[in-house]
Structure formats: C-alpha cells, structure tokens
Amino acid sequence: MSLNKNKFLIYFSFFFCALALAQESETVEQDSMAMQQLEEVVLTGQINKQSVDKSVFEVKVIPRETMDRLAGNTLADVLNQSLNISIQPNPSTGKSSVELFGLDGQYFKVLVDNIPLINDEGFGNNADLTQINLDDIEQVEIVEGSMGVQYGSNAVSGIINIITRKDSEYQWEITPYLQEETIGNEFSFFDQGRHIQSLSVGHRFSDKWYVNGNVSHNNFTGHYNHREGEFHPLNDGLRGYEWLPKTQYSGKGLVNYSGKNFRSFYRMEYFNERVQRYDSVVRENYNPSTQTSNPTATDAEFTSQRIFNHFNIAGKFLQAITYDISASYQQQKRDVEQYNFRINTREKFDVDSQEYESRKGIYSRGTFNDFFQSEKVGLQLGYELSNIKGYSSPLAGTFSGNSIDRRLEAYDAFATAEIELGQRFSFRPGTRAMFSSQFKTQMAHSLSAKYAFDNGYQLRAVLGTSPRNPNFDELFTYFVDVNHDVRGNTNLSPERGISSFLHLKKNFFPEDLAWRLSSKVSAWYLNVDNRIELTIVNPSPLAFQYNNIDEYRNWGASFTNKLVHGNLQFDLGLSFSGESKVLNSEESFNDDYLYALQVSSNIGYQIPKINTTLSLFFKYNGPEYQFVLDTNQEDPSFIRSKRDGYGWMDGSIRKTFMDNKLHLTLGARNLLDITRINTSTVSSGGVHSSPNNGLLLGYGRSFFVKLLYNLNI
Predict the structure, then answer these.
(1) Which has more pLDDT, 201 or 507?
(2) Cys-Cys crosslink for 124: which of 4, 109, 130, 154, Cβ 3.0 to 4.6 Å?
C-alpha cells in the first residue's frame, strides 16, 4: 500500500532527459504570457455575447489554460482554488458538496451552455462537482449574486456556467491522454492510485459542419490510510477504506452547424459512476467443530447514471430579431445494491437492488433580442419551461420514511433591457414572472449599472433577487413510527433571496504589451429570509415539521489582482466576510456575525526556450465559525463552533515537445499534506477541542503525471 517509488523515478527521469534534449533540439518560441492575454468573451447573463469589460455584470472567467495548468479532471479540481467557494469532499459517500458565500448547493445553479445540469438530487442545484468532467470545456464563467431574472429560482448566491467547445480551426483533432496519480502515499498501476484515460476526436467537415466526441475513464481506487481493504477477514475495525473507491465512465458527442444567419448544435453526454462501500464490521462465523471461520460482511454499491441531451438553434428572423432557443432532456438516477459478502470466497449473496434517487427533466429556454435597430438600447425577452419528476427511496434521506415520487412544473417569462446613456454609463433593469404547479406566482427583479471613469476605472453595481424553492424532502417527507414523527410541508413558501454587489475595477498599462495589471475591489451583501428549517410543532409527543422561519445574512469585501509581465503571471485575491443566521426556529439563538478570511493566489512562469510552464496555486481558508446544536445538554441549545484554518497548495510543471504536439505535465496536489482539521466549541467556559469530530478534507500529499498528445491536421 506504499508508493512505488521506482516507477515514479522512471517518470521523473524521462521528463528531465527529455528536458535536456529539448534544450538542444527545440527552437520553437512561444509568445509571452502578456501577449497571450486575449480579450475574454463571456456568455453568462448577456443579451449578446460580449467582452468582460463591456458586460454590465461582473463575470469571473476560468480559462482552459488554467485548467491545464492544474491538470484538473473534474470541476471540483478547478474550483477548489477559487475565492469565496468552499468545496467539502465526503469520503464516506464519494460525493462532494460546495458552498458559495456560505450557502450550500441549493442556493446556486450549475449550468452547461446556459442549461441547468441535472443530478441525483436536483436540477441545476446540489451538483456533485466531482461528476463534471472537463475534457470538452472551453471555459467556466462565474457570476456572483442573485441571478433570478436570467436563470430563475435557486440562483440566490450565483451561477456557475460551463461553456463547451463547439468549433476548431483544424480539420482533424485527435487528443488522447493518460494520467497517473498517487492517492496520498499509495500507488500501483492497477490496485492503488488514480488512473485516468481519455480520447477526444474532432473533425471539421466544412466551414459549416463540425463534430467531436470524447470518452474517458477515471478510476479512483480508494484510500486505505492503515485500513485493510475489502478482503480483510478480521473484525478489528480495519476492513474497508477511509476514502471509498470510485470509478467513472463518460462519453460525450457534439454536432455543430454554423451558417451565415443560423447556427445549431446538438450535444449529448452519458455518465456512469460506481462507488463501493465496505462495512468495517466483520462477522467471523467461527465453527468450533471444524475450527474454521467463514467471515462475512454487509456491503453496498451505489451506481449513478446521467443522460444529457441539449439541442440548440440560434439565428435571425425578420432580418433583425435574434433568437436563441434550447431544448433539453436529462435524467440522472442513483441505484443501490446491498448484499452480504463472503470474504474468503469473494461471493455476494442476499443481494437487494433498488432505485435510490432519481431526477428526470424536460427543459426549454429561449431568448429573443435586438428588437431595436440601435446600439444604445437592447431588449431581451425570454421564457423558461421545466418539468421535473423526482424520486427518493427511504434510504436516500435521514427523514424519508416513505418513497417520494413527485412532479414539479415551472413556466417562467422574463424581460431585460440594456440602455447606454452616453459612452460612460449604461444600466440594465430586468424582471421575471415565475409560475409553478406547486407554488404561488413569484417575481424576481434586477438592476445593474456600469460607469466608466476618465482614468480607466470601471464601477459596477448589481442588485438582484431570486427565490429558493423547497426541495423534495422539505415538501414531501413522511417518517412516522413509535419513536419519530417528522413530516414535510406541502404548504411551504419559497425562500426569498436578495443580493447587492459593488465592483470597482481598473486595468493598468493598457498600451504596454509587456505589463498588464488588473485590480478589483468588491463589496457585497446577501440576505435570505423565509428560510426553511425543521421545527418542533408538538412537544409531547415530540413531532417535527419543516416551516419557513429563519434568516441568513452575509456581507463582505474582496480585493483581487492579476499581474502579467512578460512570461510571468501572478494572481492574488483576498476575501473577508461575515455571516449571520437568525435561528427563529430555536427559543434561544445567537444572531451575531461570524467572520472568515480567504486568500487565493497562483503564479505561473513560462520558459519559452524549453517550452515549459511552471505553476503554483495556493489557497488559505481562515478559521470559520458557525452555530451548532449542542445535544449533550439536558436542554439542547446552539453554541458557537470553530473550524481551524488551513492552506491548500497545488503545483505543476508542464513541458511541450514536437512543436507543441506532445504535452507532459508533472505535479503535486495538496503539497502541505492536509488530511483532517480540528473543530472546537466556544462557550463561556472556554474553547473545547473536538478532534474526533474533525473535518476530513484530504488524503495527503499526492503526485501526478499526465501525458497528452495533440494530433492537429
């Protein structure tokens, strides 16, 4: 279970030998990083595609180049280094959760080409970022703050929009790659480590037709950390894994047509993930007459399958009005197979298979622009339709006593305008009406403005609202027996979210191609009221029900900088925020603001003579506080809990050969060797550490090597 050092020495030896040869044989020089900083074009929330500087919204862009420097394979690999985003992996389920401004995945949307992505638990929300493959992604766009007008309900804290590749300058593109990673200090080519293989093929038939396809396999074999795996026969608590084994298969395809005034594409994806859970409790089944044992254990295997279809058409009619219409059918389900396992003979018996969670969705979105033949005024009208059918078995939730099988329908219409008053000032009002089969009619509103000063400063102000609809458990849970009475509430109202952001941005040295500096100061305030919490509705006998009662507030400020000089690129961001939870669901609560600090930075240096890029990424998550329910007292109450701060560092060396066709990347994740961080409770008696309740964040320092070949014809 230890790292096979000899095999990795081979990788490093190969790299440095090739590096030495390249110093003599390669003379191809790459442009400096400053020359490569092209004008970023964004789609998210825009009336028409436009550059970041011209957008009224403040849009963060994570380009493909950053993903390659990180050697990221999933969206979690990339967003783990982003400011104001916190990713929490769960080693016991294989999933990961994510927070944006302290609000979990129910409060922001993950989109693919402006279409919400379905998952086991939601439609655009609660996405597991480790299930989103990066192989065909061009860039990731992040808009912070309520985006209810453009993207409807559940867009309270923001939007993460994944933009996929739809064209190529080459007639043929064939790109295979292999990636091998250690899991902590554990690695072997088949039984330990992370093993990734991928093949992408793209072909341009003509100036109008382009197709591509991708298949990939990502095998995470699990992390032992002194445990003994699935075949351990003793009941000593050492059977199984600390981080569960997980295997993913992904297949994607695209057909794109681009004409003069018409374009369309069809994109499909099939995703399959298998997570295996092995019980640490072993029944030894000792037979005294034969003095033999036949150890067994109860295990489970979870399988997720996603089918994604997206058909889009865009163009002009009446020689002026621009339309963009998408239709999508998606499905993701999670099945569970529970069984008993004979460890010595490796046999399954008493197998019980059932559907665990499921979402099916039909979705359509359309926008219509350019009603006025004017560069000063733009109007966008749009609609959004969704029909979601959801299912959860009793195993899927803590309180789900009966299976939940329900359908939710939504019919939205929205309008937004962009008005320029002179060359300096523009503003954008918008409104949306939301009609639902479950809830009363809701409205979302937004008002954004941008002002350009003489000295190059840009000021943006963004105010927006968005509701958060109750989820299936909150609406339909019914778990009643002699010891429990927990019920959903179909009369719940959506939560109401509002946010305001202020951004001051300046690009320095605009005429100097050797220097580029972009600095931005941001401040924000978010408020969510009508929050849904589980409340006591009857003290004796004790009964619980979900109700609209609590409130959440978050305010903060950030300072971000991007400096590019020649072959050097440096990014630095600092964020300070405070959050408050008004727990009206409890008789005694504390609504004090609890504060947190984040620092995010990365540095990249390019050596053109040897076609090599060095990268280092670092993020510091300061101590975080929250109020947790203390059930160890006779009268349970909320107390303040502290989570220790920690730093996360990743690094890589990327080298290209053969006129940029062959890419070799060596790197390390979690260089600071973070595994578990402690939590503690703060009370009037002092600080009490709770290491047993510490948070498991990583499996230690890991190393990877990635070999990619680009055949472009």
Answers:
(1) 201
(2) 109
